[in-house]
Design a protein that fits this description.
20 helices, 79% helix
Amino acid sequence: ITMSAIFTAIKDFLPDWPEWALDVLLIMTALLIATIIVATIFTPEDEEVSSDDNKDNKEGAHHLHDDFLAFRNKYILVYLVIMLADWMQGTHMYTLYLSYNVNISALFLTGFLSGAFFAPFLGSAVDKFGRKNSCIVYCVLEIIINTLEHSTNFGILLLGRVLGGISTNLLFSAFESWMTTEHRKRGFPEEWLSRTYSAASIGNGTMAILAGVVSQVLEDQFGHIGPFQGAIALTVLALVLVLPWEENYGETKHDDDDDKNKDGDHALSDQFFEGWKVTLSNSSIWKIGLIQASSEGAMYTFVFMWVPTLLSMNPPGGLPTGCVFSAMMMAITIGGMVFPILQSIFSTVVLGSKDSASEACASFIYFAAAASMAVPAYFLSGSASGEHFYLIIASFMMVECCVGLFMPVAGTLRSKYVPDALQGAILNIFRLPLNAVVVSGTYATDVLEPSVVFKAVSLCFFGAGALQLTMMGSTASSKKKKAD
């Protein structure tokens, strides 16, 4: 029995999608299954070594590791629920607004501008008022936002997008800040953080795949608003799961700080200015911020580009976006699973040391993403771009795999260089240049040729990799402050 015969048999049970789309979906499914098998066999050595280093006997090491797994699972469960809710909204927001016959561009732009405006202040509030409290505020905001989506009034929808900019900043700062600080408070080894980020990346891709199915079922049953009603239910569940979490705040940076700082009674303005001061004065921190802006900005620009690009190539049988989207999300999941293996190879084989393994691994990933985006940049500039359709599809899957890889490594590096004292503030400061790149990329997709946009995307990834290389050998100067 050949692989071709197996694929042909499976296709009989699948929807009547174009042959090329089914081939892409089945190939990615096979690769995902193979990756799961390899990832299951692979045991990260750093967990075993770190356990022995932190406990005097194997029994203590097992207890520490069991505690870590319980903690990680508690965080990942909440993360999966909120990401499933987020994906369900994101995949159907455009069609919902289209059915309302409103100015879609104005709504999306309002969301971006709101996120950019509130980002510098929200981070300081997250550190001062508590990360758990901020996660609760996020859940409440999302429930309100998705309730507002039921209205066809443009003013109410606009208010929802303003609140959406605030909630997006909380989503990408409060939860991560809580997890990182709580991880260290419980005394877990630093290198185990990458396992949590890897699990989050795997879960994110999996939830995206699931969201496509669940939201479609809800849309068929309840109309365009169905996925948003499902998101409300999921967010309520996330809120219930967050309530038992322990609270943590922006910690003091020095042992001789006064007691009121330790209690989190810092003036909000002090937290705000301290976040900017540390970011601008510490080259490692602002480099991490620029790397995040370049890589994630390139990623979002690609998201805007892939559908019109494939449509312009007139694929045989049309473009089943849901099928291709699922294949891309599988690629992200594969990347998340491969990350621990790749980082272990860099630390044990390539470098022979764990000191700069994450930095080297990140550079490799960004350069791989740049190479994958150079493919459409080159072939779309020619007149016969349709002849290279399959090569371009492969490059799209490759860049999504890189996204699955750089999500956990970027999180690992943020936890390494960004002090716990200012996690919320600095993570939101990072979103300022990111929003600028996203807005620029969105504008570029409307006014520039696709080949030119992909060249810019490739250059952004390359720039991120080159900047990351300059951090080889850097030390986390704030690391000891985190542990204090």
